[in-house]
Amino acid sequence: MNLPLEQALDARPLADRMRPASLEEYIGQSHLFGPGKPLRRMLEGGHLHSMILWGPPGTGKTTLARLVAQQCDAQFISLSAVMAGVKDIRAAAEQAQEARRAGRRTVLFLDEVHRFNKAQQDAFLPWVEDGTLVFIGATTENPSFELNNALLSRARVYVLRSLTEDDIRQVLDRALARQSNDVKVTAEARALELMAKAADGDARRSLNMLELAMDLASDGDPPVITEAIAGEVASGGLRRFDKQGEAFYDQISALHKSVRGSDPDAALYWLCRMLDGGCDPRYLARRVLRMASEDIGLADPRGHTLALEACEVYERLGSPEGELALAQAVVFLACAAKSNAVYKAFNEAMQDAKTLGSLDVPLHLRNAPTRLMKSLGYGKDYRYAHDEPDGYAAGENYFPEGMEPRNYYQPVPRGMEIKIAEALARRKK
Questions:
Q1: How many CB atoms lie within 10 A of CB 223?
Q2: Is the CB of residue 203 less than 8 Å from the CB of residue 168?
């Protein structure tokens, strides 16, 4: 298909050409732009303040920054933390000072702001503080972890959400309607549904798929994006997952808490989400072992055994066959009786070990391999438990002198710990 000259010269990706030109065209983020919402009122009133736009890829962070500057008639300077440095920040500040003398404000937009180190982030502060720059940073990472407090205190954080499938459909429909070529490409409804679903809340991804689908459909007669074409361009995409970012830790937290909450179905879902996103199954295997120790414990010791066996099976089979063993362990742990009694007891004992100092081991508990040690009283009056009735030396104290005996371990009334609690109670009598 031959494109008009003006379209052929515009080699920008479709996602860039389809950026909204006004707030009315902006799709999604109704929690920020709904009637009466603070950000909406700010823009309508022409008021500017520094802000951090935090959200997943393709949710409109860059577009929103452009629209903020446009709405407030401010000079817009765009930088990317991947390429820019302090020198670029200073150059932007000089431009802003010139614009300020002419009576115009300046918005400095920094994409991927989390890639700047703390010293680079500090470079903004003098110009943000005196009003030379209105700073807008975009990040996919949690600002609490990635940005320094000085910058956060001068900027309001707005959280952008993934677009819904209905939002993505609007994006795709608008792109199809804006075609400038003579021969229009149309799309089957089912094809648009497939691409909207495969976009996973990312408008940029959806437009990239649409652009490829339009190229594939353009040679048809008539040019139509069919369900088959959409399925081809939408295949192979991974769900959003960042092995080093917050999404990673959010998902492993959801998996752990689903197991702890005894919901095998939710636990399986989060396990599959992480595997589908590219998480190392060995990492998941280690976390499953942790769940067995922390949340099942002695209520069902088989959980630990099964978790260890799942690790071994995965090492022998690899992916994808070995992943089924991890799923089996996750389901078992989710269904098993729960106890964090040992986990709590361990933490309390560790706290005492750290705070009570280097208390001596009582003489009767010390080993006495030499004659000198025996002459010093090592091991004297030690009661050998196997020689006592029921194999238990009633009344014996195993704590250091000067330390009150503790009762760290409190078995829960579930699973095998019911029997353990009964045995401990008999011994205390």
A1: 17
A2: yes
Q: Hey, is 45 helix, strand or coil?
A: coil
Residue 171: left if φ>0, alpha if ψ -120 to 50, beta else—which one?
Answer: alpha
Which CATH architecture is the domain 359-428 placed in? Answer: Orthogonal Bundle (1.10)
For 10, the token pair is 């515009």
Phi, psi of 131 (to 5 degrees): 85, 5
Task: Give the single-character DSSP code of 361.
Answer: P
Q: pLDDT tens digits, residue range 84-140?
A: 888 888 899 999 999 998 889 999 999 999 888 888 888 888 888 888 899 999 998
CB atoms within 10 A of CB 27: 19
CA distance 133 to 104: 11
Kindly report the pTM of this predicted structure. Answer: 0.65
CATH fold of 29-159 reads: Rossmann fold (3.40.50)
| CA–CA separation, 127 and 107 (whole Å) | 11
Domain residue ranges of the chain, discontinuous segments joined by +: 29-159, 165-234, 246-335, 359-428
pLDDT in tens, 36-71: 887 888 877 778 889 999 988 889 999 999 988 988
Mean pLDDT, range 335-350, rounded to an integer: 94
